[in-house]
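The data layer described in this paper is built around a simple, fixed record for each protein. Because each token names a local backbone shape, the row as a whole describes the fold. We quote a single record here, exactly as it is kept in our systems:

***
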Amino acid sequence: MSFLTTDGKFRNEKSLNLLFNSSRVNNASKTVYMMDLKNRFNPKTLDELEALFNQYSKMNLDEASQYVYDFQTVHFSGESRHSLEEIKLFVYDVFIRRSMRGGDMETKAKNHFNATFSGDTITFKTVPTDFDSKYAVDLVYGNSTAKCVGAIQIKPETYKGVDPSIIKRDTDKNTSFTEKYDKKVHWLYYNSSGQFSNFYEIVDIIKDELNTLKK
């Protein structure tokens, strides 16, 4: 049986996401922070990113997959079991394919927003990795009168199906951002085709924020 549907999605996406995130194998203390890796070396292909991961991560892809599999054995006993082969495919997909695409989508979003607001004195910028890790934001935007007007977090639509505890962890970080800077974080989603699903909704919200600043 194939682990993927005809359109390339994982049949057990939801349970694999839960297992992967629960294991926290993507924590930098266990493997490596992928955006750090991408920003430092700017890999152009999946093979380049995979080689970088295996070189700089505390665990290579095979070891990370084994870690997730062992975590499942200990903490998910009695539940639907995923084979090591399936987990290897998923771990590769998350660390390599999605990381490559996620960075591309951040750049795409930044460019789209800057083009949309080209007539306004507002600029959208990618945040440093440590800032992203602390506050769960990918872009911040501001103008000449306000260094920061707001922030944006960018996620695939599939993120909506992850375990609620994972979403809460990110929204708690967003709350810390709002408490510190008195600004909101807006969530921008993209689908499997790489199209933003709520881009213009966010644009309208930002326009309202800018109008409020002018009053």
Remarks:
- The two ends are 61 Å apart (CA to CA).
